[in-house]
Amino acid sequence: MSSPAVHSGPGEHDHESRPLRADARRNRERVLEAASTVFAEEGIEASVAEIARRAGVGVGTLFRHFPTKHDLLLATLEVGFDEIVVAVDEALATDDSWAGLAHVLTVCAEIQARDRGFLDAVGPELFAEPSLQLRNAERMELLTRLVERARADGVVRDDLRAEDLPFLLSALGGATRTCGNTQQAAPTDLWRRYLGIILDGIRPSGATPLPVSAPTLEQLTARCRSASGS
To answer: Rounded to 5 degrees, what are φ and ψ at 14?
Structure first.
């Protein structure tokens, strides 16, 4: 399967919609690659100057392709969403509905674990940007297909809904990041332990009735918008 495509973002074309020259396109790709690395390491507070340095370009060149740091951050978030969509496509291509769902949750958890910027930004940025709201709607539609298929096969608890998954993944990301910020940092793959507990928890064996129902997508979106202040 091909690698995730990077969606065109700010700076992909000039004001007359002409394609970038080859050297300009290479610079843009270098900036985006460096930004993905630096945001992953340092979070959304990372320095634009450091990103430009890692890319081997001047700050002016960076801003010609991405007029603001915000534009650059959004472009890196798009790459993360592309990776999730590829994982879902892979999951839907297999007949094993449990393996497919577990694969997608593993990919999502791994992105959070390795990419501090994605973990920092995906909540507030997601519900403030129309383009990322569309990507999230796409993601939720695909997750719904995976969960419904798994429920039909009897491999997950019958009350599991796709809207439960963002909460579970968010809790996983927050907990393992907090552990990693202590002076004696936890193992970098600690997330795998707690993902294993989550996966066991969504299986049907031993499931007991949950005290409240899952949120609707509209409720989930409204809650996250309120939390982000948008």
So the answer is: -85, -175
Q: Is the pLDDT of residue 227 over 80?
A: no
- Highest mean pLDDT out of 8-22, 40-54, 172-186: 40-54
pTM (2 d.p.): 0.77
Spell 98-108 as b/e; 16+ CB within 10 A means b: bebbbbbbbbb
What pLDDT, on a 0 to 100 scale, did the predictor assign at position 20?
A: 59
Distances in whole angstroms, Cα of residue 114 to Cα of each of 36, 37, 41, 151, 157: 11, 10, 8, 30, 29
End-to-end CA distance of the chain: 37
Complete domains list, the chain, with CATH = 22-67 (1.10.10.60), 76-228 (1.10.357.10)
What is the Cα–Cα distance from 195 to 193, expressed in whole angstroms?
Answer: 6
Residue 13, pLDDT score: 45
3-class secondary structure, 19: strand
